[in-house]
Amino acid sequence: MSAEEANKDCLAWAARDSSGVLSPYKFSRRALGNDDVHIKITHCGVCYADVVWTRNKHGDSKYPVVPGHEIAGVVEKVGSSVQRFKVGDHVGVGTYVNSCRDCEYCNDRQEVHCVKGAVYTFNGVDVDGTITKGGYSSYIVVHERYCYVIPKNYPLASAAPLLCAGITVYSPMMRHKMNQPGKSLAVIGLGGLGHMAVKFGKAFGLNVTVISTSVSKKEEALSVLGADKFVVSTDKEQMAALAKSFDFIIDAASGDHPFDPYMALLKISGAMVLVGFPSEVKFSPANLILGMRTISGSVTGGTKETQEMIDFCAANGIHPSIEVVPIEYANQALERMINRDVKYRFVIDIQNSLK
After folding, report:
1. Strands (E) located in 173-281
2. Of 21, 229, 272, 320, whose CA is between 20 and 30 Å from 7?
3. So what's the pLDDT on residue 1?
4. Alpha helices per DSSP H over 176-284
């Protein structure tokens, strides 16, 4: 084995072209810097972003692509200046691994909105010009600022989906003060994001209604996730009965859907947050103006809020509903996720299957 091959000690699965097919791959990570944490990855959540960039849906994929930005693991080494972590700590890494650390958003610990652009955990260009590679791999080296403490009593497999799916709904819920007990929340779309919105809503003391196109999800929503009510969106009578009844709506549906029927469900001055990615958003201005309503969008959160969310989940026993799979199942997992055949997040068992 050559010296160059020996340095390629990070095992991974990568896509080589827009087919998105993943297969074994070896590469080298950067050397551990003074402020870096070397993390042995134990688990990685499967997110729709993994489909987007392995299949070049935005036209900017930089192959080979190693996907995965819901990362949980154990600290193996720390740089000489690292303050927050020590060897053996449980740690998480989310959707970004760097930012300018000097703009108004970085100074406010909202690094995901960095003016110069946050460096994404995979398929991003880091400050040294290298292409970032994600969590479908055996280890990762990350600046400590972008790592999160996972309490030792919180399962690492459960922690992984919090780093994207969890924070994507927690952040706007906190921003729009959806943590007021007794208020009412509707959740549209019961997938990886939607099911976390239900769990957070119940933990906040909200009255939670799930709105779905599929009546097959009713039992799960009510009995397993603890929603207070379930409504089929195509049932006009059920929908009409809900007019002006919700303080908040989280719309986690990524398929194209009409917005006016849902906006009509908001109370006067109610707020609707879009966290899914339909191809377009169209609604009547009257639904916004006459009801003094707010429609908002959100991505993941900053480092301060993400840590708060992890701590909140640990303190309140909130765990994503997951299906743990080996790395060899990654291609099938992506296909099943596209077909919405998962309850509600796949998590890859990196530690026990990536050899």
Report:
1. 184-188, 207-212, 229-232, 246-251, 266-274
2. 21
3. 45
4. 192-203, 218-219, 236-241, 260-263
